[in-house]
Design brief:
Layout lengths: L17 H11 L22 H15 L6 E5 L7 E5 L4 E6 L7 H20 L4 H4 L3 H10 L3 H5 L14 H14 L4 H4 L5 H6 L11 H6 L5 H27 L5 H32 L4 H32 L1
Parallel strand pairs: 1-3
Antiparallel strand pairs: 2-3
Length: 324
């Protein structure tokens, strides 16, 4: 695949043209909150799947997008060796047939589902937009990033490249990397959800130092209200630091490296908790509370938020005990 050069645009990442990217972003951003991407749930990492699991994986994709999917059907067919899809323009229905091998590797199956769900959304909800006029395998591949499914696709690489078609793994990762940079989605949000084989292939490495995460989170606070809250937190933090400094002058000092590590953990977990809570509120506003399935999805997210909060409180107590 070749990258085209467009005068006055950023072509530092592979894409047909910058105009194409702008159209994808404009059309598909309605399904993805700013600074938010799908973080795959545990079922997306299973080694072996049941047929019902495939349907659950598809439902979770639609639940995250916040749309119904009655006209999208997934069939596991022993006579099929590669994914085959059929779209009925009259009925606006989409059928995806997967082979039995799809039950052997959840990340690969999830990536194929993500690609076809993206295609389904474009065909059924944006048939009259420019995005359908320029549709190609390459454009559809990059559309999976813009709609928020980038991590799901990455986890199928390099073992299976059916979900990215004629785009190379390196090109897809470059586009995803540019996307996360543009939307201030920091590494520590998505890297924990990358499979070991993908992590090794792209040489991502383990994140041991989380300090770079904190300044990037500030970039997410774009509204005036959040900016005000940030200032208040900053003032309170200064007061707390001064107070702690005075106490440390008159008490035996614990290990500075140990304190710094705990402070980093507390700050990181607090930021993750705020992001998690915003995600839950966005899903509540988007999905509503009348659908039992969507309620379960929201409850799982809320449980994750509570877990993060519990960890935060634990390290706060550890930190405070060292200062006594």
């Amino acid at each position: 695949m070749k990258s085209s050069s467009v005068s006055g645009t950023d072509t530092s990442y592979p894409v047909t043209t910058q105009a194409t990217t702008d159209i994808l972003r404009d059309v598909l951003s309605v399904y993805r909150r700013d600074s938010d991407i799908l973080l795959p749930p545990p079922i997306y990492f299973n080694r072996l799947l049941q047929i019902d699991d495939v349907h659950i994986m598809a439902k979770l994709l639609f639940a995250w997008l916040g749309i119904k999917h009655a006209s999208f059907d997934v069939v596991v067919d022993s006579s099929v060796h590669a994914a085959v899809s059929h779209y009925d323009d009259t009925k606006k229905s989409y059928t995806l047939r997967l082979g039995l091998q799809s039950l052997q590797d959840a990340p690969t199956t999830a990536a194929i589902l993500a690609r076809h769900v993206t295609k389904y959304v474009i065909l059924t909800r944006h048939a009259d937009t420019k995005i359908t006029q320029m549709m190609s395998d390459e454009v559809l591949t990059f559309a999976t990033v813009e709609i928020g499914f980038g991590i799901v696709i990455l986890n199928s690489l390099p073992k299976n490249q059916e979900a990215i078609m004629d785009v190379t793994p390196k090109e897809y990762f470059q586009y995803f990397n540019h996307f996360t940079s543009q939307h201030a989605i920091v590494d520590t949000v998505w890297k924990p959800y990358i499979t070991p084989r993908t992590e090794s292939f792209f040489k991502l490495g383990k994140l041991h130092n989380h300090r770079a995460y904190i300044p990037s989170v500030v970039e997410l606070k774009k509204s005036y209200r959040l900016q005000y809250i940030t200032r208040v937190i900053g003032i309170v933090s200064v007061v707390v630091i001064i107070f702690l400094s005075v106490i440390l002058l008159f008490q035996p000092r614990p290990s500075s490296s140990e304190l710094r590590d705990l402070q980093d953990r507390v700050t990181l977990l607090n930021s993750q908790y705020q992001i998690c809570i915003r995600t839950v509120r966005n899903k509540q506003a988007t999905l509503g509370v009348d659908d039992l399935f969507f309620n379960r999805v929201i409850e799982k997210d809320r449980s994750r938020c509570q877990s993060i909060k519990n960890q935060h409180n634990y390290y706060v107590n550890q930190h405070n005990n060292l200062l006594r």
